[in-house]
Amino acid sequence: MRRSVFLSLLLLLLLLPFIRAISASPIEDVCENVQDSYVDKEYCIRTLKSDLRSSKADAKGLGVIAAELTIAKATVIRSHIKELLKNASNSYDRRRAEAALLIFSNVIPSLRWSADSIASKFYASAGAVLFVALDAASACVGVVELGDAADDYVNLTLLAQAITLHLR
What we know:
It holds the Pfam family PMEI. Belongs to the PMEI family. By secondary structure, the chain is an all-alpha fold. 80% of the residues lie in helices and 0% in strands. It contains eight helices and no strands.
């Protein structure tokens, strides 16, 4: 009897890593693999789980979701900049808002293209465009006030880029 219990425990210990690998969700797997890319694992999990589609998504789908979350944040920033432009009290502030609006108006179609490229498995191209898209927020620093939205945008873009690099 003792021998069979011992063998059962030994077998369980040997199989435990395989059981964990099988039971790990795609979100946890992806976030485990991207945490070395300037992305915190907990941030990754929390962000991806915030989108209801993530519960049924594979790694590629999570990449698309991350890119689409980035698009959503960029769209919020563009709306904020439009409001700044509308309320600009002088030509200097107006020109600064116009510059920032131009940057974010151009980055949104690029981000959409990246999301479509991830969905089509063109990961290298999507990753390159996401790398360039990172500069949109930093280009606006000192031009217009974006507040926490700029940091949120950068973090989302880094997440989308890290997942895309993981998919290659």
